Amino acid sequence: MSFPKTRLRRLRYNPIIRELVKETKISVDDLIYPMFVCTGENIRNEISSMPGQYQLSIDNFINECKNVTRKGIKSILIFGIPENKDESGKIACQDNSIVQRAIKEIRKQNLNLLIIADVCNCEYTNHGHCGTIIDGDVDNDLTIQTLANQAVSLVKAGADIIAPSDMMDGRVGLIRTALDNSGFERTPILSYAVKYSSAFYSPFRDAADSTPSFGDRKTYQMDFANSREAFREVEQDLNEGADMIMVKPALSYLDIIYKIKEYTNVPVIAYSVSGEYSMIKAASQNNWIKEMDIVMEITTSIKRAGADIIITYHALDIADRLNNK
Ligand SMILES: [Zn+2]
Fold it and tell me: For position 69, what pLDDT does the model report?
């Protein structure tokens, strides 16, 4: 009997062989867990549109950081929910602002935890936009001054990596200069370089209380129809001194992750955002899908597309899954 010599199923019969030939593996070392810290005491507010995610006051935040490290996750990304907001987000630059205080408290715990501080104004402005408003829109050059001050203050508090998420032009360069001038030339910048204006962010805006009170973010975040523009954003940020590049969101942008990975030699980080998380949660609460099977498949696809590191709200569940294997 003549039959093709190629039998691709040969490598699929034995589960150990399948594991041996697996091309893409997720590890806890690949994951960054995003967290929200708020003012007050003993607060643990579940975010209604993001079941399983919480706004935590510093005391509970510290306990959660310990839980994170116990599971083997070594990196967190911090967002702050301040008590008061102002016109230009300058409140985020104060050394006693909420994230700075939280970082100082984590540092006292001597946890083996890398602290990445998000840098943006939108959680701190009373209008919810990512910077200072002039004539009804965010003013680029005023905003980046505030961001540079915020970045220096966060590093002074103990942040290991600075992650500007605002999408202003020139902010990476100005932050780099400000950090260097303050003696922080060893602190890396992880730039939200390719951040699309996306409907997938809306649960985050509940979480961080940062919904714009007017208009949208289309004058600073990218149009989701564009991919070549992503190269220009990456070029700009690398020229200004970014050490790592982010693509955000992840799931609907796997082509962008792939292209950016081919294009650049710096680490590529993908942010699997709140809307991606909430869709999985909602479907699994209805028993329409098997939550962790979907989570592993999607997270693997993000890595397979080219992401070196993945920021995900599922990080702790993925760690449990990997640890119990
Ligand atoms: Zn923002």
Answer: 98
